[in-house]
Amino acid sequence: MVVFSGDLDKQIAAMIISTGAAAFDMKVKLFFTFWATAALRDPKKKVGGKNFLGKMFGMMLPKGAGKLKLSKMHMMGMGASMIKGLMKKKKVASLPEMFKTAGELGVEINVCEMSMDLMGFKPEELIDYPHMKICGVATFLADAAESKVQMFI
């Protein structure tokens, strides 16, 4: 699955589908690229040595899954807060909890090396995830060629 969007609702959909597939013993590999990579940044980690553009992208993009915005009806954060509150009330796991479950189920996350480079993200600022690697599009294409199902979110 290509995870391109950095929107909260789309990342939730990607993680629900991937953990559901993994629960059915399907092998799941996610390719996080462009705006989606911001969700993988650990808000507790600070990394130095970035160039000017890397610092700018770092400041402008959300840092971690907890800071993502909704694709629609964000309403200056009120929409995202409402969704998170509703998920908690309905006992639906939060996006960071979904990442944890995905890791426990063996879902692999491949992070686009070019996107990381363009946005000035460094590997050491990413979340601790047991099945994560940084790779290029050739790895995604090889994985997609072996897969029966591909999705783009």
State the shape.
Answer: globular
Structural class assignment? alpha/beta
Q: How is the main sheet built? A: 4 strands, parallel
What is the terminal-to-terminal distance?
Answer: 7 Å
Radius of gyration: 15 Å
Fraction of residues in helix: 40-55%
Enumerate the spans where pLDDT stays under 50 for 5 or more consecutive residues.
Answer: none
Count of DSSP H/I helices? 6
Give the H and E element order: EHEHHHEHEH
Estimate the mean pLDDT confidence.
94
Beta-strand percentage range:
5-15%
Number of beta strands: 4
Query: How would you write the strand order of the largest sheet?
Result: 1-2-3-4
What can you see in these coordinates?
There is one protein chain. By secondary structure, the protein is an alpha/beta fold. Helix content is about 40%, strand content about 10%. It has helices at about 10-25, 50-60, 80-90, 95-105, 115-120, 135-145; strands at about 1-5, 30, 110, 130-135. A 4-stranded parallel beta sheet has the order 1-2-3-4. Helix 5 (about 115-120) links the parallel strand 3 (about 110) and strand 4 (about 130-135). The longest helix is centred in the N-terminal third of the chain and has 16 residues, at about 10-25. The protein starts with a strand and ends in a 7-residue tail after the last helix.
